[in-house]
Design a protein that fits this description.
The protein is an alpha/beta fold. It has helices spanning 2-11, 34-43, 106-117, and strands at 16-17, 25-30, 49-57, 67-75, 80-87, 95-97, 120-122, 177-178, 193-194. The protein has one domain (2-151): Beta Polymerase, domain 2. Strand 1 (16-17) and strand 2 (25-30) form a beta hairpin. The termini are far apart.
């Protein structure tokens, strides 16, 4: 672990070591340098996979460093992780470079951070909401978003469903699997199984 920590520090003097409770090597990285660090992690240090992006809101007291993201990279050949935290330069217009040209798995992870935290990932091929509907004016993971939610116009697809009191499940249409709706004594009895046309 110390070897990769030293090599990365030598390669990128601007990286600042980051304390880690789980022992994973971590660094704080300027957002403007994130792409070059990620590119080196993949091509030079054999970190083939980006496993996660966790968006962060440090609160209004953090000023322009309020928003950011923590990236977790994994090396299949070296069997180790490295963590890179990057802060956005602006609280009012948070941006980070997209890592989708390097890691295809960044696609949905960046869309989630964009949707729920409002971070824009520059050069993302299709940056759009992934959980909330287009036109929703808020970002629910921000610290100033109330737990009770905010009133917002529903999308057109909700028209006529505003007063619905229950969700009607879609019919299975004799699908390939069926789980019994009644309780089962043995766990194996709860597993999906091929549909035999019988209910139970």
């Amino acid at each position: 672990m110390m070897e990769i920590k030293q090599k990365l520090a030598e390669e990128f003097p601007f990286l600042k070591p980051r304390e880690s409770a789980d022992g994973i090597v971590g660094f704080d990285c300027p957002g403007s340098e994130l792409f070059s660090v990620a590119k080196a992690l993949k091509s030079k240090f054999e970190f083939q996979t980006l496993t996660d992006i966790a968006s962060v809101d440090m609160g209004k007291a953090a000023g322009n460093a309020r928003f950011g993201a923590v990236y977790h990279f994994f090396s299949h050949t070296k069997k180790r992780y490295v963590r890179i935290a990057a802060a956005c330069d602006s609280e009012n217009d948070p941006h980070l470079p997209s890592l989708t040209p390097l890691y295809k798995g960044a696609d949905w992870l960046e869309r989630e951070a964009f949707d729920l935290m409002g971070i824009v990932f520059d050069s993302h091929p299709s940056l759009r909401r992934i959980l909330m509907w287009e036109g929703y004016g808020y970002h629910p993971l921000r610290k100033d978003f109330p737990l009770s939610g905010r009133e917002a116009p529903l999308p057109d697809t909700f028209e006529g469903n505003e007063d619905a009191t229950e969700v009607v499940p879609a019919p299975e249409e004799d699908g390939p699997f069926h789980s019994p709706s009644a309780g089962s004594v043995f766990a194996s009895g709860r597993e999906p199984r091929s549909w035999d046309g019988k209910v139970g």
